[in-house]
Amino acid sequence: MVQSLSSTDATFYSITVTWDELSCVNHNGELTGYRIDYGTTTFDNMTTDTGTSFTATGLLPLTDHMFRVAAVNGNRTGPYSTTVTGRTSANTVAVTVHGGGTSTEGSEYTLTCTVSGHQSLINRTIMYQWSRDPNNLQGLTDQMTYTFNSIDRYDNGTYTCRVTISSPLLNSDIVVQNSTTFQVTGLFF
User: Do residues 106 and 77 both lie within one domain?
Assistant: First the structure.
């Protein structure tokens, strides 16, 4: 029987399982490979492999997946290993706001919000919402920038970019935010 089955390296859409190679004394005949069964509530997926690891891809994110492995020799399948469960991970999504600091009154200035860690999330929609101390400056938009055409002292404050990432593969939206402080300098009359 296959021993030491474990799940490792879970990503948003994949899980890798590994196991110990079956020694010659533990199988009856020539070992031709391994059968890997996996699924969420039942073992509805099956594949074979000759190595001692397998990466299941195209999985649902943030979901538990069960795995079991059996040795195969010819047309015969040996007993299954114990079942292990792995969970696809949540992407670590980060937001960075660029453009804080100081600018001169009357100039044009742009704040930019960048998002990282969402690249593997397919069919995603990213929406941005800018606010200042804590009033919303705009509704949800697909624009990652907020531009001041002619800044003045009333534009001083803390600006927050709130990002909402949606995908039909998620049970709920991912919402992250970050802030920067902005100071206007110049002659105030």
Answer: no
